[in-house]
Write a structure and sequence with these properties.
Layout lengths: L18 E6 L5 H14 L5 H6 E6 L6 H10 L5 E5 L4 H7 L2 E4 L8 H9 L4 E3 L1 H4 L12 E2 L3 H11 L3 H13 L16
Parallel strand pairs: 1-2, 1-4, 2-3, 4-5, 5-6
Helix pairs in contact: 1-3, 1-7, 5-8
């Protein structure tokens, strides 16, 4: 993907002994809500102690109130590694300070833009096959990590949380994808 300004990392991969993981989106939005619920209920409890102690799940996006937001905040409060930041003005710095973005949708494909924007920012992505559906050029383990089911998602987090070199490789491979030249209709998404 052509970059006018290369992304800037504000910390080395897995720097300071923490594994900074980004979850981005409006938490009241149903696909984001379900993605975070999946992480809280099925993935975080499965992490080994070493990964759980080093992982910081940074949730960035508007918190507008209402039952979904309240429920997620209540669930997230059970995990000391979960932080809700709300809306953030400087998204490039958020990308540059995290090691990975999780797009954990188990039902919806409406989160593809988050994957593509992470690639453009040089941030590796761990996602489900459902969330990545329709994005051409993805290769599991080469430019993205795809994991379906809570056991595989947790295992992927454990592996990536100890492999700074793999995060850097995924970042470079994601940056090299060119979504501007996909077909005559100018879209990088295949019809659903």
């Amino acid at each position: 993907m052509a970059q006018e300004v290369p992304p800037v990392r504000s910390r080395p991969w897995l720097g300071g002994g923490t594994f900074e993981v980004l979850a981005l989106g409006q938490i009241h939005h149903l696909p984001t809500y379900r993605s975070l619920t999946f992480l809280f209920e099925q993935v975080l409890p499965r992490l080994n102690a070493e990964t759980a102690n080093r992982l910081r799940l940074n949730i960035v996006g508007p918190i507008i109130g209402g039952p979904r937001c309240a429920h997620l905040q209540e669930m997230g409060a059970r995990f000391p590694q979960v932080m809700f930041f709300g809306r953030v003005a400087d998204l490039p710095s958020v990308y540059g300070s995290n090691d990975l973005q999780v797009v954990a949708s188990t039902e919806a494909t409406g989160l593809r833009t988050r994957i593509v924007e992470s690639f453009a920012a040089g941030l590796p992505v761990l996602t489900s096959s459902r969330a990545a559906e329709g994005i051409e050029g993805l290769r599991d383990g080469e430019n993205v990590v795809v994991a379906d089911g809570p056991e595989r998602f947790a295992a992927a987090l454990e592996r990536l949380g100890s492999e700074a070199g793999q995060l850097e490789t995924l970042s470079k491979s994601g940056l090299s994808l060119d979504f501007t030249a996909r077909g005559t209709e100018g879209s990088w998404l295949r019809p659903s």
